[in-house]
Amino acid sequence: MSEPFKFSTQVRVRFNETDAQGHVNFAHYLSYFDVALTDYLRAIGYTYLQMLADDVDMLYVGTQTRYVSPAYFEEVLNIHAHTGHIGHSSVRFEFQVFANADRGGIDHRCDGGARDTSQDFRAGPAARGRRRLRE
Q1: Per-position DSSP letters for 4-63, written without gaps between them
Q2: Taking the domain 7-134, which CATH number applies?
Q3: What residue segments make up the domains of the chain, in order of their start?
Q4: Each residue's pLDDT tens digit, 4-28
């Protein structure tokens, strides 16, 4: 496993995010990725609200997730995020999920990615949002 990405935000697992087996239901990891992406954009100085003010929006066109070990109710998860690739018409964001283990280490829970395409409300596919992300 590689080193965690530099940026991270924390999420505490809520009861409603767990399933009958007592661990986080797989679908909730996509919500965790979205929380991390919103916080990551804020940290790099290009918030979602600024993007909308530029008449640009991002649309998810694909996601992938690899589950490593289960996360449980009340666990604090560190969701790491970074920009993996900025292409001509899309951006790939990558995520890693870790939990502080009771055993004193850090346990890897999950990793994944999301491919977003940007849309300029005035002129079709947008380059301005990608330019701002490259800055």
Answers
A1: PPSEEEEEEPPGGGB-TTSBB-TTHHHHHHHHHHHHHHHHTT--HHHHHHTTEEEEEEEE
A2: 3.10.129.10
A3: 7-134
A4: 788 999 999 999 999 999 999 999 9
